[in-house]
Each structure stands twice: as C-alpha cells, then as structure tokens.
Amino acid sequence: METQSLIYLFVGLSFALYIAIAIWSRAGSTAEFYVAGGGVNPVVNGMATAADWMSAASFISMAGLIAFLGYDGSVYLMGWTGGYVLLALLLAPYLRKFGEFTVPDFIGTRYYSKAARVVAVICLIFISFTYIAGQMRGVGIVFSRFLDVPILWGVVIGMGIVFIYAVLGGMKGITYTQVAQYCVLIFAYMVPAFFISFMLTGNPIPPLGLGSEVNDGSGMYVLQKLDMVLTDLGFAAYTDGSKSTIDVFCITMALMVGTAGLPHVIVRFFTVPKASDARKSAGWALLFIALLYVTAGPVGAFARLNFTETVNEQAYSEAPAWFTNWEANDLIAWRDKNDDGVMQYRPGDAFEGAPVFSEVGQGASGERLLENPATANDNEVYVDRDIMVLANPEIANLPGWVIALVAAGGLAAALSTAAGLLLVISSGVSHDLLKKTFRPDISEKGELLAARVAATAAIVVAGYLGVYPPGWVAQVVAFAFGLAAASLFPAIFMGIFSMRMNKEGAIAGMVSGLAFTFLYIAYFKLWEPAANVEANWLLGISPEGIGVVGMVINFAVAIGVASFTKAPPADIRKLVDNIRVPRGAEKPHMH
C-alpha cells in the first residue's frame, strides 16, 4: 500500500476506536461526567494521566525545540518531568483525600468563600484556553500535512472528534479513550526513534544511541559530529547553552510549579477509589511519561543531524520528497538568494516572518516564489520547528507504515490533552459557577446539560485559537505554565499546608500573582515584542520564566494579608488537619 492510504487507514482506525469507546462508556451522572465515578484502577489511571500529560507540545514540539535550541532545550525536559514529581508527592494524595470534583471546589471550600472560587475559575479558564490553543494548532498541523487539507479544516475535523467523546462521555469516556491514545502515541514515538537510532549508530535504544559512535566510519560520537557539522556552518555548538543560569533556573522552576498547578492533570487524581491509589497511579504515570521523555533528547539530536545533512548544499531540483511535501503546507520554504539552485542552510532567518508564497509562477529551479522580503544573511532555508518529529521518519526514509503511525500518534497526543482541558473548562462553568455559586438549586440533569453546553462553547473558542494561534505551540504552552505557577499553585499549596491561610490572603495572592505575570508576558510578547531582549528583562528573567516571580509575589502578598486579617474558622482548620491524616481516607464524601 502507498503511504497516503496507510495514513488514512491508521488515522481512521484510531478515530473509530476512540469514538467506539466514548459510546461504550457514556456518562450517565455528574459523578461519572466529572470524575468517572471515582472507580478507576491506578494502572489504567496512570496511563490516562500520561496521555493527558503528553500533549501536542510533548509529542510534536518538544523534540523540535531541543533540535533547534540544543542544550538550552533541556529546560523543558527538566521542568515538565520534575513538575510531575512535585504534583504526585505534594498535592495529588491530599486533594484526592479532600474528595471534591474540581480545583476551584477545593479552593472555594478551603477558603470558605464564593469570591475565592470565582477567582480560581477565572484563573483556570485562562490557563486552559492558553494551553488548548497549542493543542488545536498541533491538530491542524498534523491534519494539513497528512490528510492534505488546509490547517483550518484540520482544526475543524479535530474539534468534531473531541466534541463527540468529550461531550458524550465526560471524564468516564475520556479516561478510557486516553488509555487507547497513550498506547497509540507511545508506540508512534518509539518505533521511529528505534529505527533512526539503529540506522545512525547501530544501537536501537535511543538514549544509548545518543552516546554511541556514528556508524559512518568517522569514529566520532553523535554529539561530537553534530557539534562539528553545526559549527562548520556557523551555528553555535549543539552542546553549548546561551541562556543565563538564573533564566534556566526560572524557566525550569516555572514549568515545574506550573505543572503542579495544572488543573486538567490534578483532576485525574480524583478518579481513583482512595488516596493511596492516587500515589500509586502517580508512580505508574511517571513510568509511562518517562518512556517518551528520555527519548525526546535523542530524537531532537538525530533530527537536527539528519535535517542538516539532507538539506544543506543539496540542489533543489534533487530535493528529497519530504521537503516538497512540507513546503506544500507552508511549513518549510527555500529562498534562492545567490541564484545557484542549491540550498544553503546557515544561522539566521532566511527572510522576514513566516513564509507567504506568491500565486504567480515558479523560480528558475522550480521553487515556489515568496513574497517575504529577504534578509541580509546567507541562510536560505526556513523550517517550522513544530514539524521535526512528524517529518523525522520521512527524512530518515523509513517505511510508509511508520509515517502513518506518527500521524496517528501526533493526533492522539493533541486530542487527549484537548479533551482533558475541555472537561476542566466545562466543569468549571457548570459545577463551580452555576451549581456552587449562582444557581445552587440547579438539578443534576440541568448541571449535566450545562456542562455539555460549556464544553461545546469551549471547543469553538479553542478551534478559533488553533487557526489564529498566538505564537508557536510550545511557547504558548509555556505561558499556561507560568500563569498556573503564579495563580493556582500557591493557593493550593497553602490550602493544604498552612492552617493560618485565610480567604482574604488567598484571594489577594491569586489576583496579584496572576496580574503581574500576565502583564509581564503580554508586554514582551504582545505589546512590545521588539523590547524582548535580555537587557530589558526584570533581573534577567525571560517571559517564559517570569511565573516564578509571580509565584513569589503571590506567596508574599497572601502571607502578608493573612497575618493582618482574622484566622479561618474552626471547622476549616479541622478540615485542613483532616486532609493531612493519611488513614481513614477510603471513600470520597459527596455533598
């Protein structure tokens, strides 16, 4: 079978599986819609958590980031993995013992205030939409390349699929769909990695391959060769970092703490029978996540080496098929600056902005003509970082079924996270805003309907953000983490570990942390992007890492305000004491 038919087959089968699972596990009650009835096995929940966790950013963008940032890209690996450990040890078991449905539920009850709950819902919706924009963008890229449709239609198809199983099945449908998606995405990530590692080094295990000699007879190790190839072309060595220590620390910390405050991952721990199961499923999830994360570094390095060697100094007329495939989707472009018909890959931007192809004619070598003004450097090749993982099997000439597998895997990664986020948005609106705040007398049936309507509205907004995205995938996601770090994490943390923290302190802290972080990011990314250089940053901290400062402000304001206002009532202090007792936490209380 030809590659394109295989892609249709693999993607079609995986979608049929997800929809069948959604129909089989349709939610009948709000408990099933929000937390899958609270009876999910820890190993199953670990797999579902891993799928929820590994978004389009992990699957599609992360290795691409590492491929082009080299050593500096490791902050994403450290931050995202470390944050998961923080979440599993510090927050998950306690929140599970508390036994509510959502993060604003915890904050509203713990801080005995409707205002705190509403602030938490606003933070949560803000974070979730920022994050979901990245997922939908990933879905659009995969569809447009592999199913030959424009990115707009790719996003629309993705919205339709998520709509079916998130709105029908709720958390119950999503949990079992995510198990299937984890199996698809991990298989799709590992198979090409094994192949490419074996082809380059003779060692099929990617992390070991990264430390092996390249089997081209040069006797050089992979990273040595990569450093040499890149420095010869004028790039910085792959293994050198350019970020300052404080910025590396802050970005890693913001990703870690932001991870621990991510609402759609925390909710996963409410779906197991008891608090000890929350710890077990956290351990399983870490194992399932680590499989992909220890492979991402090697995949990034192999991709950069293969890309550079197949593109640089290659005549365009003899360019490999994958180059023209991705060019057709506007994600790779070539600008022949010296009219020699040969592609030169060097540092710097090949032209200004993202490629805009003109409708008229072709260049002397048959290339698509660009409308973008050229830049003054020697680089002629534009490549979108988000395609590296998806293009990797094609660059390495792997068989068609591997390419089809990667397409299905990229979709599984993006759709599983998007579904988890939609659920968080819809439960925030229906459960926290309606049931617990503005319409306490709403029936269970009415609440379930409201949740489905909210999920539908959220899908439409998410789709719009996917078609007109603010920035590229992993960067958008980094903001979501910064905002979570600055707003929700301190309130949850002090809610568990501080008896003295009261509603005034928590609300003041969340508002000040979120406002500071949002304004800082918006200033450098939206209003004055030209000013986004190290000299202008506060303490040398980039917008990606500023969530840490927001978090410190949140803690400081909260503790300050709490010390001047009256202590929480006795029943709340008793609740906090009870959350931290490890025993007697078998059944969630519903009220």
TrEMBL record:
Membrane-crossing ranges are 6-24, 77-95, 115-134, 146-167, 179-200, 246-270, 282-303, 401-425, 446-466, 472-493, 505-526, 546-565
Superkingdom of the source? Bacteria
For membrane topology, the record states: Multi-pass membrane protein
Compartment(s) where it occurs, according to its Swiss-Prot or TrEMBL record = Membrane
**Keyword Lyase found:** no
Pfam families noted in UniProt: SSF
Key words of the record: Membrane, Transmembrane, Transmembrane helix, Transport
Record flagged with keyword Membrane: yes
NCBIfam families associated with the record: Na_symport_lg (TIGR03648)
Family from the record = Belongs to the sodium:solute symporter (SSF) (TC 2.A.21) family.
This chain belongs to the protein called Cation acetate symporter
State the species of origin. Answer: Erythrobacter westpacificensis
Q: What is the lineage of its organism?
A: Bacteria, Pseudomonadati, Pseudomonadota, Alphaproteobacteria, Sphingomonadales
